[in-house]
Amino acid sequence: MKEIKMLSAHNISKNYHTDGTIVPVLKDISIDISEGEFVSIVGRSGSGKTTLLNVLSTLVRPDSGELRYQDENLALFPEKRLNRLRQSDFAVIFQFHHLLPYLSVLENTLLPFMNSFKPVSKQREQEARACLERVGLADKADRLPGNLSGGEQQRVAIARALVKSSRVLFADEPTGSLDKETGRQIMDLLLELHREGLTVVMVTHEPSYASLAERTIGIEDGVVVQ
Amino acid sequence: MNLFTIPLRNIRRRPSKTLLLLLVFSLGVMSIVALYQVSLVVGYSLEKKLTTFGANIVISPATEKLSVSYGGFHLGDMVFDVQDLPEAKTSQAIRSIELQDRISAVAPKLVSMTKIGETSIALVGVRWPEERGIKSYWAANGTFPEKPDEILVGSEAASKLGMQVGDVLNIYGKDFSVSGILFETGSDDDSVILMELGMLQTLIDRPDATSFIEVAALCAGCPIEDIVAQISTKLPNTAVKALQNVINQRMTSVRFVQKLALSISLVILITAAAMVGLSMLSAVNERKKDIGILRSLGFGKSQVFLIFCLEAGLIGALSGVIGYVAGFGASFKALEFLEMAEGASPVFSVGHLFLASAAFALITVISAVYPAWKGASVEPTTALVAL
Lengths: 226, 387
Fold this sequence. Notes:
Helix content of chain B: 40-55%
Largest sheet of chain B: 10 strands, mixed
Number of strands of chain A: 10
Distance between the termini of chain B: 26 Å
Oligomer: heterodimer
Strand order of the largest sheet of chain A: 6-7-8-3-9-10
Helix content of chain A: 25-40%
């Protein structure tokens, strides 16, 4: 019986158009990611690793190829279903934290649930506070992101992924803007979440962090090399 | 915490920018509200002044008319069964209609024919204060009658009778002093003798009688037909006629003022709306990062669109409230400056305040539709590239 993969990319290609020139970024890439796996994507700057992560997290549509999530073709998903997927199953954390600067830490954590006029429930709020406590930010729930350090901001983004019980966490250079000690703390947190069953796909150019993953995928000039 | 929290917090993030936008739009709303209030008051005041240049409704007894011809010759029209209008009852009925606040003046008249020497002449009894109230254009050589035994003679009648100011004229056995001779008006007033109505009623023994009543009504805000219909209902056995040419001339002046105010308001409104639109367009470009974050968290295009529209709507609603209150205050100053503050004044209405707030919220939302749509159309990837 064929094993159903959590996420499968088959023959993915993506080109960018710059000044009338077509720049191929991903060339016929195929990868599979199993449920609960920790995969790191490594490569030099401009190798296409971030674009691959964006394609896998549905933020970028590939020009060709097929992307399947739990054996369902994501290309066939209507916009609303893709939004629901990003709201619940997928979580993305970026190098530069990506918090809304005018919302408090708690509000940023609850942002995925603030997409309607229905107020966020008290239960959700308690869950968010619990997630913030887990990442060590319970006492900073009412602060604005501007009053937090880079590492703390990254932890808010992780708490946001936790509160929506995401199944796959996509992390784009999560330690890229942090000092070594803070970077290490973030990595410990990701490893802890992975041990609890979360699927993690991380882009990094740090070989030491990449080696903490169960599997490493190397990208060079838009092609998988290892 | 819900979708509304996002635009609300963003507005608070940049207080100086929000305040500036609020100030600009509030100024726009203030100008529009002030112009509207001033145009209403000026229109009302103008119309009130125009009522002193003549009546626009005439009430006369219902009559039966018969065209008489015999042997192929037309012998003219015969009016029969002519009854007087009781002055007190009719005036009271006119003043008691639903639109009584639109009645500016009620001027009763009694007409009687007499002979002065060999000359037939019409005597017209009037109530001087009311008559002069609707005929402010009258000017006379001498003075207007102040006593019951004084009369005013039309220019043509005076020339026909060879009368001078100060002459004494015997009418129905009573002596009257000519207090003034009316300058030529080009109307029927030139060929008649005018005296106090009560005196004429006594002289011809028709107490409380009037031949017809002229009414000066204010037409702005309600059609003259409504006033005529209401008077007709109160006075069933009368003929109530609106003098359409007079009304049209007056309303042209009043409407000109209102149209001018409306045109200026439109220009201000379009300018303010364009400013909101431009500001939202620049906000969309500045906030591509926010859009990217929201889209990566599963916010749909409609939700991003709504966030920008809500933001604009909030500014519009707040500007509506501030602008309405400020505009209301400014209208008093403007009327004072225009020296039209007397007689009528702007009326504050809480209902209008809410209506203005809702209307301006809607206008800003409409102005923000294109920028909001543009923002909502940004793909997550494009927004992320902007980071």
